[in-house]
Amino acid sequence: xxxxxxxxxxxxxxxxxxxxxxxxxxxxxxxxxxxxxxxxxxxxxxxxxxxxxxxxxxxxxxxxxxxxxxxxxxxxxxxxxxxxxxxxxxxxxxxxxxxxxxxxxxxxxxxxxxxxxxxxxxxxxxxxxxxx
Length: 132
Description:
It is a single chain. The chain is built from 3 helices and 8 strands. It is α/β, with parallel strands linked by helices. It folds into 2 domains: 56 residues, Roll (2,3-Dihydroxybiphenyl 1,2-Dioxygenase, domain 1); 51 residues, 2,3-Dihydroxybiphenyl 1,2-Dioxygenase, domain 1 (Roll), CATH 3.10.180. The strands form 2 sheets. Strands 1-4-3-2 form a 4-stranded mixed beta sheet, with helices on one face. The longest helix is centred in the first third of the chain and has 11 residues. InterPro entries: Glyas_Bleomycin-R_OHBP_Dase, YycE-like_C, YycE-like_N.
């Protein structure tokens, strides 16, 4: 099967605390838990949380395992909202463990709101739409 625009995309990253991550991404942003696994104590396994929109073309996979997160201020997940960034959404993300931060790139400060998740990865809520 070929790689196409319909190909499902998984964004995978480590997490220090899957409970805190779930609160941010599910309660804060509004994603759904698609899958979770508790690795227990078996060697070579790790705890796993997948969040996204059911039936959507992408999901975020968060793992708690042997690697700790090492985000930079340029590790961005950008959501193009094509309209104003809802203040209640930003407030919910902050209540659910996020931290509002300024971006080193003035573009994101002008066109959106940047919030760090509990692991330090950045979510940008952009008021622009995506049109290639």
